[in-house]
Amino acid sequence: MLDHIHNAPDRSFRLKLFCFPHAGGFSLYYAFLRKYEYRHLDKILVFDYPRNNFTFNGTPDDFQQYVDAAINYIQGNKEEDEPFLLFGHSMGAYIACEAGLAMQNKYGKAPLGVVVSGQNPPYSVTLGKHQEMPTDLYAFAKRLGGVPQKILDNKQMCEKLYRFAEADMKAVATYKPTLASGDERLACGMLLHGADDFIVDPAYYCHWDKTFRKIFMDKVFTGDHFYFNNHRDEIAPLLDNFAEVLSKETK
Q: Mean pLDDT across the chain, nearest whole number?
């Protein structure tokens, strides 16, 4: 299933990929995804959460506003019947799953596939695997890794980053996953994470079948939560191959 096809791709069936960043993250973190010459992805769109428009009151609405904004972004950047994929890292993985379920079950426009990176299955939250708001956000971020040193060295930039990260983490702490079953689940998932990622708990991986009807790939890289910083040349070809296989299955 993973063999590359060397014939010219069908340009009429190239997919858009929508990317949703981690807590405290911005589109800049994922700019590397745009540098690859894709054969089966037409465009990479990375969403910057409109955090300044959000309000927070400690209820599940806090997280839902991220999902609603993601849905609006998807709907506003694709044609009515244009096929698409979703990608989310960490907090963004939950947003990609929730947005995908809503696009499929509420709006009838299902993503062909969803790539989840550096995260546990949404169902794990119902079993008590929940990311609480860290008491020391700076220490938590240092442990995660991935924050560019130039940001850590700039007090003003660092304060801005942590202000957004704090809001995001508080929202994630209110997350209540959608419980889907049967054909309400997303069609196909691709799982990526680092071997030393302390966020991802292998004990919960069996519960991805609560979100996806099938798993295309479960790929473990060397590295921590931001494993992709050392594997950038590998990620884009995997995404392109995922798009290729799903495109052929859809025809």
A: 87
Q: In residues, how long is the chain?
A: 251
Output the pLDDT for position 38.
Answer: 96
Cα–Cα distances (Å) from 71 to 96, 103, 117, 201, in that order, read 9, 7, 19, 28
- Location of structure tokens 């419980």: 179
CB burial of residue 108 (10 Å; 0-12, 13-18, 19+): exposed
Q: Do the strands 113-117 and 212-221 form a parallel or antiparallel pair, or are they unpaired?
A: unpaired
Average pLDDT of the segment spanning 236-251: 91
Q: Which of 47-56, 122-131, 186-195, 203-212 has the lowest mean pLDDT?
A: 122-131
Q: How far is it, in rounded angstroms, from Cα 3 to Cα 241? A: 8
Residue 251 burial (C-beta neighbours within 10 Å; 0-12, 13-18, 19+): exposed
Residue 128's contacts (CB-CB under 8 Å, 6 or more residues apart) are: none
250 Cβ contact partners less than 8 Å away, ≥ 6 residues apart: 13, 83, 112
- Sign of the alpha-carbon torsion through 21, 24, 28, 30: negative
3-state secondary structure of 132: coil
Percent of the chain at pLDDT > 70 equals: 84
